[in-house]
Design goal:
With 471 residues, this protein is mainly beta. The chain has 4 helices and 29 strands. The chain is globular, with a radius of gyration of 22 Å. Bound molecules: calcium ion (4 copies).
Length: 471
Amino acid sequence: MNRVFIIFMGMLTIFGTAVLAGCSGSNDSENDQGDTDSDTSSGTDTYRDTDLDVDSDSDSGSDSDSNPDSDSDTVPPTVSDCNDGIDNDSDGYTDWQNDLGCANADDDETSGSREMEEGFTTFDIGADSTVIYVSSTDGDDDNDGLTPDTPVKTIAKGASLVTDGHNDFILLKRGDVWRGESLGRFLSGQDAEHPMVIASYGDSTELPRVELDNNFIDHNGQARSFVSIVGLELVAYPKIVGDDNYDGSTGGGFRYVGGGSDLLIEGCRLTHCELTVQSYDVNHYENVEVRRNVIEMNYHIDTCGQNATYRPSGMYTSHVDGLLIEDNIFDHNGWNEDVASACATMYNHNMYLNADNLVIRGNIIARASSMGIKMRSDITGDCDTLLFENNFFVDGEIGLGIGGNTEEPGRFSNVTIKDNIFSQIGLNNPTDRNFSWMLDMADIDTALNSITLIQDQINRCTCGEMRFGSR
Ligand SMILES: [Ca+2]
Ligand SMILES: [Ca+2]
Ligand SMILES: [Ca+2]
Ligand SMILES: [Ca+2]
């Protein structure tokens, strides 16, 4: 939580210095609901490009050794289960460096509910679990990978040592860096309570960093279930300006195009990557959780002039049943002002979503090319039970958009929008369309009857307008 909190505070500092400006009117005669694209949100969509990256630095790393600095004026940490050098729960793993039951250094070593673990997802190693250690600095693919002293080197080798359908763990050493590795379709875990886990180990407080030139995992039409990805930094290096292999267009992220259930991505930092979850053909995604991640700076070259050829967003979903998007930071997806041809367009958003039983709460949603969240459906009865709660939206030209594109009735139902803050929507106006709308509800008259919007809830906006009804 500290890492995310630090980033959060940094963002508040940035936004705190911004001047309230650019609250221009919003009457553009043209289509405006963001997107008029032809790519439907139906499940058989074609692959959408995922993009990559920008900033290459990793998180702030604090001193993690066991000897507190003598010149520190901070209070030494309290000795607790997760920093006492003892395997308190006798599972063979000691303290936060190795025991995945530790939410932080002040915790106990057993895994509890998220409510008991400061909101984090923690894990107990099963009696039948295989745990594989992977280190780019210490590893050797001729090792057995079974201990921190005998790690393998490549992620692919690590993946070859766990078993499909098992409650196995691949742990990447914190602070290490891999480049050009990916896992293809990867595997499934045992069940919802016993997933396949990719997480981390070691003394460093830097996340393990994987520099991608392809999707880290690409279901590619198949179904994979019960997989948790926790605490990784993923960056698409062909989109890092200045990288030797920069091209501004290729890269990767997560391409969950296929189906499966109980997939978790938590505590990761995705830079220049897109997270796609798109049901395909006979497969369907259910119970997908995206929590406490930073998803930032996805873009693609050649998007100027409202070019719809490329649609880089931070996250794209299509026909997911049961989607939780919680406590994340989505920042500056869809464009990159440091790349001349990577313009903001009406087609690119922080989140571009289609789902049932959707919960989006506690997120910071900042500086989208167009919309912070765009909800898309073209089918009557398609998107039911949507909750948008306690999010902070800032900048972008539209905070939350629901509807548009087509005019089928009743595409969205049981919609609740409450306790959000919309701040300085339209501040930077990157698309030059002069919009500053906190909410844009278009062509969804049926859905509007079901929206719980103002009433006792608070939706505050420091800048911008709301627009309801048909265009
Ligand atoms: Ca301990
Ligand atoms: Ca332990
Ligand atoms: Ca714990
Ligand atoms: Ca434990």
